[in-house]
Amino acid sequence: MLANEQVALKAEASGRIVNLALREGAEVAKGDLLVKINDADLQAQLEKARASFKLAQDREARQKTLLAKELISREDYDLSAMELNASRADIDLLGAQIDKTEIHAPFDGRVGLRYVSEGAFVSVGTTIADFVKVRPLKVEFSVPERYAGRIGPGTKLSFTIQGSLAVHNATVYAQQPLIDEATRSLRLRALCNGSESGVLPGAFADVRLTLGENPHAVAVPSKALVPDIKGQKVFLVRERKAFPQPVITGVRDDEDVEIVQGVAEGDTVVTTGVLILRPGMTVDIKNIE
After folding, report:
1. So what's the pLDDT on residue 135?
2. Distance (Å, whole) CA 89 – CA 83
């Protein structure tokens, strides 16, 4: 289970925390001030930069008037205009540095556990607290590549959480554009449909997908399958003799596997002792399911 959004609040500037407005576990709105780092030195530099900007602005205005009367050269005016632009850039730079002394909520969410206290000195990159948007939750899961073409955005699924019998629903909204080479599986994410009350991010989910319905499917116990160099096979019994039959399998669950090709309705399939059977061996059936 994944949170809808999750970030670690980290300091972008070094300094002493003068206001720790966040409260652990509290719900806050996007844009709320959470942390303020001391910026007294930057504020002083900003006032100095504003004063310099005012002087540069007045000089540029005077030089512009003199240039219109052709009392100064164009080069002298360009120099004053450049100084004005440089002063404006200094103000913008200090404003950006002051912005880094404040941490605002990036989205509506809940504050996690904090790792510092008010008055602490923090450096760039220091983690202040975790911040998450719990609802709606996301489910991340993987399926074998053989089913990749049968699952995609819009696919419905259900899941349960360990320790609870409640069934929750979700809808796939995104998938990786490639198959994982190591696991030969496709990773997908689904968005919960609002039924996940009490479920927390980080929990493990038992996901159940319906890939389709086939009322005429032929299924056998998975223990009846025998690995073969060319694939898989089962042993059929005809006239008390064992005959190996190559099969092509489909979907499976914990106990049974679908046989797409190789076994027909009414065939007798051996489910126990298959590893000791040989073609043509006489079979004495003790129990039929």
Report:
1. 84
2. 10
